[in-house]
């Protein structure tokens, strides 16, 4: 089995707000194996972005703070590092691709400068070598005429091209892990497919490991080797992609999967959809119980009084549900 | 870019022309006239009117004025006989401009620095102090600000000369007095803009690259935060450089400020027009410079202007 390159144990990350303390990430544990694509899915506000940004310490601290747990990158504890120490990891050990390429590039700086900036203050490379690397990486992410694009500003590029530039920024420092936070959400479907294929191809070519965050279940199914399902700051299910999509154990995962639209109208009519009631509960001062209990069709009293631990129901298939595995669920 | 600038100059000329026309007729609509002294005989009044050409039909006066203006001639002042408006402006403008440039240098440099420090220390005591200074600066009127400066720095502590304009030490108090409001507003706008930019996604991108905090602030945050400050600079530069009545009177500086008030009080038609045209042209010019500056700071504007 491949080595664990990133280990997250019982991570808790909260934000101080005027309304109280928001526990955005609550007891999240998972590990990323070298060379795999690990997907994280969940709806807006479930803590997937905050979790991923914890790894590079990009969340604003304050108001955010670590409330417990550990993040280990190749055995090194990240939560204890200073900003200066984090700079040795950001960009060169772990790269980050952001959600919205329209707003994630600095409008007043040329594309080339933004890519080259990864090398600023690191020493070792001459100006010419840095430029060569930038042009190389632009070519690698599939940008035509890199010399021309190098001198252009972000507004002169299309959306898909901007996302390619974002990928170039994440890759240019030759990191071993790439965290991609919904990299295709703001792109249209054809561009989305191109970018996903590009990311997959780069993984094979460069031996990368991905942490891939998305709210689109089909995208995650397409790209990931293993998948984590998050709900309101907790991991509810964690398994191989194939297993998770064919045999979901957590009621929330089942609900999510049943909501994927099917193109064929005949199949769509036959498909069973599970509807759930209510809304996502407030993340401020949550009760110590299963977070899905209020909306779960199978909830019992036990679900409303104690937090279900993540247990390995089948080899490699973890689920945080008191009743998972029972007949009919 | 050249085409854009030429277009801007064309629009500016039209603006100035409309300004001249409107002010020309508005000034004539004011009650009274330039020769209102009750001790003056009727014959003398008619003589003077004829001398200045005020007895001719209005449209003829208007066309004559426009013709003279094209030659850069603002005409004679009625209040200061034998002196042309050009003379008056040429004598007073250097003082106003000198004071204005000093005030602007003070206001922009301190305003930006205060705004940036304030934003970087958001929520703590340093921020609080700068915010208080900024609110004080934008809410205290200049005659009180000038008087306060004079009272403390000249009368009480005897550090700086109280009035007149005869050397560097003399320029400090009026420059600060004149620039304080601008300094305070620049600082407020810069602070707000910095805090807005820091939440932008590209700041997070910059941080994810592992560059220093200083570089993130300097290259990504400040560069993008400075736009709104440039916006207010156009009108501010024009207003500060062309003199202000209050500060110049307080510090006994022979600048242009007093003419704004005097010319209207005396119905000194040529001087009113001269001041308006001068100020208006200056304002239009400054705004044009700002538009061009935008293009330099923000590449997106450059493309739109092509």
Q: Can you describe what's shown?
A:
The complex is a heterodimer of chains A (329) and B (306). By secondary structure, chain A is α/β, with parallel strands linked by helices. Chain A has twelve helices and twelve strands. In chain A, the strands form two sheets. An eight-stranded mixed sheet of chain A has the order 6-7-8-3-9-10-12-11, sandwiched between helices. In chain A, strands 2-1-4-5 form a four-stranded antiparallel sheet, covered by helices on one side. In chain A, a hairpin with a 2-residue loop joins strand 9 and strand 10. In chain A, helix 4 packs across helix 6 and helix 6 packs parallel to helix 7. The mean pLDDT of chain A is 84. Chain B is an all-alpha fold. Chain B has 14 helices and no strands. The longest helix of chain B is centred in the middle third of the chain and has 36 residues. The interface between A and B is medium-sized, with 36 and 23 residues.
Terminus-to-terminus distance of chain B: 5 Å
Annotation field: number of helices of chain A: 12
Largest sheet of chain A: 8 strands, mixed
Q: Helix proportion of residues of chain B, in percent?
A: over 70%
Q: Can you list the strand order of the major beta sheet of chain A?
A: 6-7-8-3-9-10-12-11
CATH fold description of the domain at 94-255 in chain B: MetI-like fold
CATH class of the domain at 94-255 in chain B: Mainly Alpha
- The fourth-level CATH homologous superfamily of the domain at 94-255 in chain B is MetI-like
Distance between the amino and carboxyl termini of chain A: 31 Å
Rg of chain A, Å, rounded: 21 Å
């Amino acid at each position: 089995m491949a080595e664990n390159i990133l280990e997250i144990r019982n991570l808790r990350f909260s934000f101080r707000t005027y309304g109280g303390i928001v526990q955005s990430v609550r007891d999240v544990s998972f590990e990323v194996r070298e060379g795999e694509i690990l997907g994280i899915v969940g709806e807006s506000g479930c803590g997937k972005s905050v979790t991923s940004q914890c790894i590079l310490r990009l969340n604003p601290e304050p108001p955010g703070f670590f409330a417990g747990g550990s993040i280990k990158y190749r055995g090194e504890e990240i939560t204890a590092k200073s900003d200066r120490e984090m700079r040795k990891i950001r960009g060169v050990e772990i790269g980050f691709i952001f959600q919205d390429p329209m707003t994630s590039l600095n409008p007043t700086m040329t594309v080339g400068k933004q890519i080259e900036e990864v090398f600023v203050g690191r020493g070792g490379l001459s100006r010419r070598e840095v430029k060569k690397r930038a042009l190389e990486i632009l070519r690698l992410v599939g940008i035509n005429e890199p010399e021309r694009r190098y001198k252009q500003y972000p507004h002169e590029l299309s959306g898909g091209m901007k996302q390619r530039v974002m990928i170039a920024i994440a890759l240019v420092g030759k990191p071993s892990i790439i965290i991609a936070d919904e990299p295709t959400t703001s792109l249209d479907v054809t561009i989305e497919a191109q970018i996903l294929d590009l990311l997959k191809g780069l993984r094979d070519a460069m031996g990368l490991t991905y942490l891939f965050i998305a709210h689109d279940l089909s995208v995650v199914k397409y790209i990931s080797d293993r998948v984590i399902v998050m709900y309101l700051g907790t991991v509810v299910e964690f398994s191989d992609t194939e297993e998770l999509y064919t045999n979901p154990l957590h009621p929330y995962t089942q609900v999510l999967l049943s909501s994927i639209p099917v193109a064929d109208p005949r199949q769509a009519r036959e498909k069973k959809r599970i509807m759930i009631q209510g809304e996502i509960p407030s993340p401020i001062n949550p009760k110590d119980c299963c977070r899905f209990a209020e909306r779960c069709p199978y909830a019992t009293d036990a679900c409303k009084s104690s937090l279900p631990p993540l247990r390995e129901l089948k080899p490699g298939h973890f689920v945080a549900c008191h009743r998972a595995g029972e007949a009919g669920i | 870019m050249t085409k854009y600038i030429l277009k801007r100059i064309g629009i500016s000329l039209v603006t100035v022309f409309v300004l001249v026309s409107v002010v020309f007729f508005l000034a004539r609509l004011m009650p009274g006239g330039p020769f209102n002294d009750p001790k003056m005989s009727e014959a003398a009044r008619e003589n003077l009117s004829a001398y200045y050409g005020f007895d001719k039909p209005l449209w003829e006066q208007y066309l004559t004025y426009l013709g003279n203006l094209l030659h850069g001639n603002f005409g004679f002042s009625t209040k200061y006989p034998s002196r042309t408006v050009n003379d008056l402006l040429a004598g007073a403008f250097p003082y106003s401009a000198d004071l204005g440039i000093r005030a602007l240098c003070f206001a922009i440099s301190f305003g930006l620095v205060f705004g940036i420090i304030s934003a970087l220390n958001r929520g703590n005591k340093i921020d609080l102090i700068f915010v208080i200074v900024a609110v004080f600066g934008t809410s205290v009127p200049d005659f009180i600000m000038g008087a306060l400066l004079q009272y403390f720095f000249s009368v009480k502590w005897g550090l700086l000369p109280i009035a007149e304009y005869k050397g560097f030490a003399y320029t400090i108090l009026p420059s600060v007095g004149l620039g304080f409001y601008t300094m305070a507003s620049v600082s407020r706008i810069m602070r707000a803009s910095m805090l807005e930019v820091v939440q932008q996604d590209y700041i997070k991108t910059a941080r994810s690259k592992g560059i220093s905090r200083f570089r993130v602030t300097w290259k990504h945050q400040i560069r993008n935060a400075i736009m709104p400050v440039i916006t207010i600079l156009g009108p501010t530069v024009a207003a500060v450089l062309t003199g202000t009545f209050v500060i110049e009177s307080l510090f006994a500086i022979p600048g242009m400020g007093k003419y704004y008030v005097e010319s209207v009080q005396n119905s000194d038609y040529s001087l009113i027009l001269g001041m308006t045209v001068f100020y208006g042209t200056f304002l239009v010019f400054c705004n044009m410079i700002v538009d061009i500056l935008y293009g330099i700071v923000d590449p997106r504007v450059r493309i739109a202007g092509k």
